[in-house]
Design goal:
globular; alpha+beta; 2 domains; two-stranded antiparallel sheet; about 20% strand; 7-stranded antiparallel sheet
Length: about 325
């Protein structure tokens, strides 16, 4: 946030479709009363919404809102969810500093990590995840169904406009010199746990990474942008889906090197199987978001992602047990 201006119209259509036809019941805060409340994000996998998040509190100057309420689809209440993994995925702190604790509240299971916490509540057959930080108190959380998403969409657009105005008033951030693959590395390091969360800096790093990768590979800016997007998304998915990746002393830097060597230098790597599975999985995510997806295709995509996770787990195991 804010989105790429070239995608603004499509982005607005997606917002309106979500507001007018929510995929399932969306929950928000009843208490505590925190303003503003806005649509923080949503996730679509294999053509199906798997989460919708509402943010509460002034995000200005912060990487995360004060409170984030993420509603999962019907049936999710029975699903196992690793709260520690979910909480660590968005932590701005290095993994070596993480100290987590668990407790049971009347609202549900609570996991804490530093000054951040994650509460898993049950609303009928749905799981609702509430993430908080700072002075927000999980024991005070009460949830209720959201009757109308439109005010949250309006608030999101207002927040985007504030971000744009703030960006226009600030000088461009200075980047440390880097060229070639080093420029791509500088961007990817922001996607590691504890990496920079400054949107303006990340945007400039991204633009430079695309230019430099195009210079190295001679593939054209459109292909270079596709490859950079794929690299960043693979790191993000490692953070979210591969259990060892967020553990203390995990070989995250080595995994980043594998990506750079495979994509940027076109060298053979030990994670070749994982790279091949990712390319298959990533290509399926490039279809139009509203294109119909058959049940058989959904299962095929799930199998591709599972194979990718298994390949990275095998890579890590081979490093640990040569």
């Amino acid at each position: 946030m804010p989105p790429d201006p070239s995608h603004w119209d499509r982005y607005q259509r997606s917002l309106q479709e979500l507001a007018e036809q929510p995929p399932y019941t969306i929950y928000g805060l009843r208490r505590p009363v925190v303003e503003p409340g806005y649509l923080a994000g949503w996730c679509v996998e294999e053509g199906t919404h798997v989460s919708v998040g509402l943010g509460y509190g002034d995000e200005e100057g912060a990487a995360l809102p004060d409170l984030l309420v993420t509603t999962l689809p019907p049936g999710s209440a029975e699903r196992e969810i690793d709260l520690e993994l979910e909480l660590r995925a968005d932590s701005p702190l290095p993994p070596e500093t993480w100290v987590t604790s668990h407790e049971q509240l009347p609202q549900g299971e609570l996991c804490r990590c530093g000054d951040r916490w994650l509460l898993r509540a049950r609303c009928g057959t749905q799981a609702v995840l509430v993430t908080g930080r700072g002075g927000a108190q999980p024991a005070r959380v009460e949830l209720e169904p959201v009757v109308d998403l439109q005010p949250f969409v309006v608030a999101r657009n207002e927040l985007i406009e504030r971000h744009r105005a703030a960006r226009a008033a600030e000088p461009e951030p200075e980047l440390a010199p880097a060229c070639g693959i080093a420029a791509v590395r500088a961007l990817l390091e922001t996607a590691l746990p504890g990496g920079s969360r400054d949107g303006r800096t990340t945007h400039r790093l991204w633009q430079r990474a695309v230019r430099e990768l195009d210079g190295v590979l001679g593939c054209g800016p459109e292909r270079a942008d596709y490859l950079v997007t794929s690299l960043v998304n693979q790191l993000n998915q490692l953070n979210l889906a591969v259990p060892w990746y967020t553990g203390p002393n995990a070989p995250r830097e080595a995994a980043l090197e594998e990506l750079l060597r495979h994509v940027g230098l076109r060298q053979p790597v030990a994670s070749e199987a994982a790279q091949a599975r990712w390319e298959e999985h990533w290509s399926t995510q490039q279809q139009a978001p509203l294109a119909p997806v058959t049940p058989a295709e959904i299962e095929r995509r799930k199998a591709l992602k599972q194979a990718w996770v298994a390949a990275w787990e095998a890579w890590e195991r081979d490093r640990r047990e040569p």
